[in-house]
Predict the 3D structure of the following.
Amino acid sequence: MARIEVPSEVTGNVWKITANIGDALAEEDVIMILESMKMEIPIEAPSAGRLVEILVKEEDGVDEDQVVAIIEIE
C-alpha cells in the first residue's frame, strides 16, 4: 500500500481536526482546518484512502509545506 503525505498549504495554526485516524476518506474530504490571518483554510485529502496518521494537534503552529497527515491508499 502506498502512503501519501498531506502538507499544509499555508503557515498558520491548527484550529480544528475534523477527521479521525482510521477514517476512510474520499478525495477532497476535509482532514483539518487551519487558521491563518483570521481566515479558515481547509486541508483536504489529495486522494481517496484511509487516514493513518495525524502529525499535529489542535492549536499547534504549522509551516507552509509541513506534512500534517498521512493517508494510505490501496
